[in-house]
Amino acid sequence: MILDKDWQDWIVENLSLQCSATSLVDLMVQNGFDRQFSINAIHNSMNTGIETNCFARGVCSIPEINYLRIADSNIKVSMRISKPDIVIIDNFLSDYECDAIMSESLSRLAPSEVVSVHSLENQLHLHRSSHGMYFSRCETPLIESIESRINLLTNYPIDHGEGIQVLHYKIGAEYRPHFDYFDENTLGGQKHMMQGGQRVATLVMYLNNVEQGGETIFPELGLKVFPKKGAILFFSNINNQGQVEPLTLHGGAPVFKGEKWIATKWLRQYKY
Ligand code: PD2
Ligand code: ZN
After folding, report:
1. What total of structural domains would you count in the chain?
2. What span, in angstroms and rounded, lies between the C-alpha atoms of 213 and 121?
3. Is residue 105 a part of any domain in this protein?
4. 20 to 30 A from 19, CA-CA: which of 42, 166, 171, 202?
């Protein structure tokens, strides 16, 4: 379905008048449009309406609305800040999906590695003591449905995403503060960027509740995100000017009690 020119102009005009995206979605639905179609149309206008096309500059965001209706469920935004662009959404995954990802990954877990600054080879590092594995893109029907949900949320094409990575932290395990974007000034960073360009955004999906510790921390912001089963943390590694954002420095705090399971998805600037 394609939105006709009058409706496209109506969206652009009302966004420029600072009308909320939610009210525009509601009005479109009252006029017979499908809710998800309306959300996508408004999202597209928000992105293309900005001076230079955000997408081409690697800017990836989530529409500024209170909730999104994706695959028959209401996904509610519970918190967001704008600089850097960080969004927390509850109930992105069901309990069943969280449990299935953990059990499907268990037999493939191996000590986690970090990106080398010298080459494409990753390496083990004292600063990262979790165990992890990667699903290839669309590897199972469950992974495929989560990737398509991420696409509806961010409007970023599925083929720009790295495979979903599952991480398991036992007591004491952590991931010290780091950046997810590649450092263009290192050989390793340049080599990684040759395929798919920069990591423009990170999504962390929390697969379980952690008894104590295991928060995702942003030391430059004084922000701690507590793991909550089914919730998702999104942050954009790129600012509005298309530059990497050092305020996204983040880490996984040590687990003190229980264990921590997450699944991460990195979105790339180009097809990956
Ligand atoms: O463990 C975490 O909470 C976390 C958060 C953000 C891990 C990563 N990023 C990562 O593995 O890069
Ligand atoms: Zn990270």
Report:
1. 2
2. 31
3. yes
4. 202
